[in-house]
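Fill in residues.
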């Protein structure tokens, strides 16, 4: 047995701060409240349900994750939010129509207690939304300081010594990293100068990190994928993770594409289209926001299939992604995939997938796990990019010079081995020869 890392206990309330009190956030909050009351089960959450094998298969040791490492209890979570609309979590959940109204009504009291603080928002970055619950200040630096005030006030009012921030708001327009993102001093000067390269999500991340709060990005925005904020995270000893929660269609790609490569089956083309009618779909109907999402979704196949290593199999495939706003579908997204593959002697075959998923139902347990694991990472002294959380993201953050690992099963192995490492247990390679060698 290895020596475990020193992990501070998960004592007391944990602030879970969410920019964006929309479908994902309200489904998360309502779900936690329902599970706490014994009204539902936390299906989809590794932190609540999954086990980790320790030692040999013959040892029969497979504790739950929450038994292996000290995680915050659901009863200790305190939710705070910002949103451009003043609706509390109950009204927002009613509007989102993700959950059955009867369940939402039974949770009216705790949901109504979550009232959004005025948001940092600009229609230049999310063009299809606008609302009255917005902060006003002369500069982006001033807006960041206002968010810091919000965080300090919330932590004090709810008796929280620890917190995490998880971005659950809309996708911002596409931004490329620029010189102002390269170094913290330049970044803060750009905030003071109202530089257009400083997006609202970056202001939230800056405020969180300055207040000692780990940050995770659930959307494909650039946000903490810049050196300035990553340097701030390391300076403060804080973990960061992202980006873009992996839920429906991309989750399927990270399962199916590894199968193709594992069997050395070729790929001629992969056509993906989505229809959804929630607020996220409305935002993504704007070309600027769609570009951000498209880049996130398109990168998956290239990294999994490695066309540079297998040019004959994967060097020339077509990959097309479409997202269509269709109001009647609501939060029940439908993702279609038409996959043209190539088999023995070059013979063509096809795979068709029609995933009628519920976007926020898939995203809510992801947001919960990310929040709890970020808090664990902070207490275990892990800082900077948390690549072991790639399992939860479409476009995982990695260190400079590395390519992201997208294969869902490699990601899961990385996550569980990190938990074993933190707990002082031996890592598992799945070699298995010791069962057979005498």
């Amino acid at each position: 047995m290895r020596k475990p890392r020193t992990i501070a206990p998960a004592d007391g309330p944990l602030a879970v701060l969410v920019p964006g009190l929309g479908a994902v956030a309200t489904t998360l909050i309502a779900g936690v409240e329902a599970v706490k009351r014994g009204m539902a089960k936390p299906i989809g959450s590794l932190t609540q349900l999954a086990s980790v094998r320790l030692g040999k298969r013959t040892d029969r040791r497979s504790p739950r994750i929450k038994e292996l490492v000290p995680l915050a209890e659901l009863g200790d979570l305190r939710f705070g939010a910002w949103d451009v609309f003043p609706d509390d979590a109950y009204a927002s959940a009613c509007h989102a129509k993700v959950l059955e109204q009867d369940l939402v009504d039974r949770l009216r009291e705790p949901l109504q207690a979550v009232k959004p603080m005025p948001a940092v928002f600009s229609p230049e970055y999310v063009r299809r939304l606008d609302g009255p619950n917005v902060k006003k200040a002369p500069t982006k630096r001033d807006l960041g300081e206002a968010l810091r005030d919000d965080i300090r006030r919330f932590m004090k009012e709810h008796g929280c010594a620890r917190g995490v921030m998880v971005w659950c708001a809309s996708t911002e327009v596409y931004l490329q990293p620029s010189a102002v993102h390269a170094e913290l001093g330049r970044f803060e000067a750009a905030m003071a100068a109202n530089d257009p390269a400083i997006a609202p999500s970056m202001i939230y991340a800056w405020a969180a990190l300055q207040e000692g709060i780990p940050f995770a990005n659930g959307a494909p925005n650039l946000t903490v994928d810049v050196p300035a904020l990553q340097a701030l995270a390391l300076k403060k000893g804080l973990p960061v993770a992202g980006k873009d929660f992996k839920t429906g269609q991309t989750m399927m790609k990270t399962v199916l594409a590894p199968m193709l490569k594992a069997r050395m089956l070729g790929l001629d083309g992969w056509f993906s289209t989505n229809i959804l009618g929630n607020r996220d779909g409305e935002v993504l109907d704007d070309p600027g926001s769609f570009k951000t999402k498209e880049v996130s979704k398109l990168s998956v196949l290239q990294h999994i299939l490695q066309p540079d290593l297998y040019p004959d199999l994967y060097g020339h495939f077509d990959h097309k992604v479409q997202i269509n706003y269709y109001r009647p579908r609501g939060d029940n997204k439908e993702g279609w995939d038409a996959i043209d593959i190539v088999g023995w002697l070059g013979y063509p075959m096809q795979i068709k997938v029609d995933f009628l998923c519920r976007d926020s139902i898939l995203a809510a347990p992801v947001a919960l796990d990310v929040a709890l694991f970020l808090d664990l990472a902070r207490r275990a002294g892990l800082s900077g990019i948390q690549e072991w959380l790639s399992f939860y993201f479409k476009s995982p953050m990695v260190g400079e010079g590395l390519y992201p690992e997208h294969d869902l099963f490699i990601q899961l192995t990385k996550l569980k081995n990190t938990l074993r490492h933190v707990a002082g247990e031996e890592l598992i390679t799945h070699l298995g020869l010791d069962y057979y060698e005498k």
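The CA atoms of residues 261 and 305 lie 6 Å apart.
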